[in-house]
Design brief:
eleven-stranded mixed β-sheet, five-stranded antiparallel β-sheet, Glucose Oxidase, domain 1, elongated, single chain, 9% helix, 40% strand, 373 residues, OB fold (Dihydrolipoamide Acetyltransferase, E2P), mainly beta, 3 domains
Length: 373
């Protein structure tokens, strides 16, 4: 039987989860190998250099650049505050004085006798990296970050916006095909990850943000509502950095699409447990999926769970990710080893999918993704 590895949508009731948590530049790692960390715990920290502000001191004082050092009231490297006098010049035998005040609070980095400019820098910006998931530190990247290993429920979505969040799972609807409206959102959903059904109404999102919910996970939403939410048309670029109070994850796609029953049932089973979620999405090279992670201990019931992505096998549940069957879910029935020619003339490996109700489709293998049980 021909096999093919297809990175796909994972909906795992139990999986091994490994995350690298790195700083944007070198700093300090605050944990060690073997430490058990919580999702919100800081595992690495550093300081980003503050913004630079050039100041034409010589021009303001009416002196030649070469005299800049003689008029300074503070030395390079010293701290300064906004409004503080940092340079003074005198003229007409001391009868007249001119001064320059700092426009910022920060540090005087230097003074140039060639240009007559002062270089001021704002205070450093602290940057902290959290663990993101409950787990164990398994590797240290010196001065950069850590690797954290965990285990539990791992669910990927099709599309998301908003950053990393942490909160308890709250099921807001009764079924996977129920529309999530603002009436479903309760005051006690503050700090929670709200699970919806087939579609998110924009009023429900605003209500969730108002009560302080950290995230919403729902089957789908209308594309026009996403534009209204963001204030612009979302392109193909990576998401996850939007300035949103509540992260949004779509598990199925755009439109009124019921959340997959296995996904809804899995989330419902773990209602009340803490989850880590991220809306970061990238569809092109280096695929990134939005995700929901619920750390749990392995039980006898889960003893046979492998928790790893595998190659395509007969009977696998697959989702079609390109037209003309976009969004359709079916079972893999055949993996012909020989290349087949498409209408475009390209020769590719294909597969056969049982879409139900007697419908079968032959598709390029690149047009599907695995939905892991």
């Amino acid at each position: 039987m021909a096999h093919s590895y297809t990175p796909g949508l994972r909906v795992s009731r139990f999986a091994k989860i490994v995350k690298e948590r790195r700083l944007p530049l070198k700093g300090e790692v605050t944990v060690k190998i073997g430490d058990i960390v919580s999702a919100k715990q800081i595992v690495a920290q550093t300081d980003l250099p503050g913004n630079v502000h050039p100041l034409n001191c010589a021009g303001q004082l009416g002196i030649v650049p070469a005299d800049i050092e003689s008029v300074l009231q503070v030395k390079p490297g010293q701290d300064i505050t906004k409004g503080q006098t940092i340079a003074v010049s005198t003229s007409f035998f001391g009868l007249f004085k001119s001064k320059v005040e700092s426009p910022i609070t920060g540090t005087l980095e230097g003074a140039s006798p060639i240009t007559g400019q002062l270089i001021l820098r704002e205070p450093p910006i602290p940057v902290e990296v959290s663990a993101y998931i409950d787990g164990k530190v398994t590797e240290i990247f010196e001065n950069e970050g850590v690797e954290i290993e965990s285990q539990g429920v791992f669910i990927q979505g099709i599309f998301g916006v908003g950053g990393e969040r942490y909160g308890k799972i709250k099921i807001a609807v009764k079924s996977a095909d129920e529309i999530l409206t603002k009436d479903h959102i309760k005051e006690d959903y503050k700090g929670c990850v709200i699970i919806g059904g087939s579609r998110l109404k924009i009023e429900a999102y605003h209500r969730a943000a108002e009560v302080g919910a950290v995230a919403i996970v729902v089957g789908g939403m209308h594309n026009r509502n996403l534009k209204a939410l963001l204030g612009y048309e979302q392109g193909v670029a990576i998401t996850g950095h939007e300035d949103l109070k509540t992260t949004l994850i779509l598990t199925e796609g755009f439109g009124e699409i019921a959340m997959a029953h296995r996904t809804f049932e899995l989330l419902s089973k773990h209602e009340g447990k803490s989850a880590s979620v991220s809306g970061a999405t990238q569809i092109r090279a280096g695929v990134i999926r939005p995700e929901v992670i619920i750390p749990i201990e392995k039980t006898d019931e889960l003893a046979d769970s492998k928790g790893e992505v595998k190659g395509l096998e007969m009977g696998d549940t697959l989702r079609v990710i390109r037209n003309p069957y976009f969004g359709a879910i079916g079972k893999l029935t055949a993996l012909p080893p020989e290349l087949q020619e498409l209408e475009t003339g390209a020769k590719v490996r294909v597969l056969e999918l049982d879409l139900g109700d007697g419908k079968r489709a032959v598709l390029p293998r690149a047009n599907v993704e695995i939905i892991e049980e």
